[in-house]
Amino acid sequence: MKKKNWQKTPDEKAIHQQAVKIRKMTDQQIVERLESSAEVSADQRRAVINEALDAIAVRDENGDRVSDITIRKIRKILQGKGLL
Question: pTM of the full predicted structure?
Fold first, then answer.
């Protein structure tokens, strides 16, 4: 059975409003929105990868770390694959 509007949680109402807004967009607006979100995702992915590589390059409490040469090799491989 369908949920009545007054039974929806605030989160469900917000999601519904966003979905209605997207359905009312023109094709061009939808394409632009998807392209801009893909660019943001790529930037976020690069930031996360760089942060992870920087984190493993620093010695932890046990004294373990990954050497600088290995980090450089990983970065080179990721750049070659277009991930960085």
Answer: 0.49
